[in-house]
Amino acid sequence: MQEDYARDLAALVAIDSGSDDPDGVNRVADWIEARLRSLGFAVSRSSAGAPQYGDVLVGRRQGNGSGTVVLFGHMDTVFERGDAARRPFSVDADGLAHGPGVCDDKAGVVAGLHAAAHLIAAGDERYGELVLVFTPDEEIGSPVGGPALQSVARGADVALCLECARENGDLVLARKGAVDLVLEVEGVAAHSGIEPERGVHAGLEAAHLTVFLQALADPAARLTVNVGMLRAGERTNVVPDRAVLHVEARAAEAAVLNGVIDRIRARCADPAVPGARITVREIDHCPPMEAGPDALRLGDLALEVAGELGFAPALARTGGVSDANRVAALGVPTLDGLGPVGGGDHSPVEWLDLASVPQRVALLATLIEEAPALLRGEG
Prior knowledge:
Aminopeptidase, Alpha-Beta Plaits, 2 domains, six-stranded mixed beta sheet, five-stranded mixed beta sheet, 19 strands
């Protein structure tokens, strides 16, 4: 298995597939589609009418049991065209594979395909339907892939995310949600030396806003708020009439995240600088991946299976977001981090531990087999 896996991983890493490179992403989709068809999956592809992104790829295969299992991963990376040639796939003396996207998420994509192939070859397809979804734009917030994935996953019995395990081997049970906001402050320009009193200082309002926003963070509630970008004015001798703040808030619970958004909107409706006006635009809203009772049962099953396979991961709760957030928000029991062990994501030192592949693919295959019955009360 490990040699076949490494060969397939090398083939995908050799394809540049940055989020803004739809041709490259679609070359990855071509490779995956051919593999899915060879395994007997019915395959569909869609572009969602957005040529700046690659296609969404969905494979479906009927089993001989009950329950729908959705596996999902992403085909895009954060790397530039040409990086695959500059840093080709390699394996070092410690058995760590390297190359752009080797961990995030090409290793997970290959793991999902190999787990499905193992079950099909063994004739052990106890699910009602196995659905594999591969998206083109996870690294930029899934503007196309997110809605498409939610449409496919809605009503599924189990969802397994193919992002790789944490560097320490942990699986991911819960993730914070995140909202990106743009706050635009409108003031009145004036000569700063002659008649500043005729101006309405947008930058001053932005400064008040920044202090307010940063103070919203609440470690006890697992809430972070960050003004990541702030710009005001064009000249030193002009009272600035415009300021823009780019803000991110993250929280582990939807109620906390929605609550802080309400507080921000209320503050923006009542500027500190007389005459200033503030508009709020919500650029992206990714809900938290919260661990409900069924997700906890799924996590416990994963730990039990891992123990039988000879390794002992934990269930992590992390501040990072993935497409698992969007699926979990549908009420589908979801577990993340089911690819092999890797790290260094989004950097030139990204790595994937090939020695972890057999156990992790076996865990994934077993969850596909056993999780639907457990969560449907049949096991």
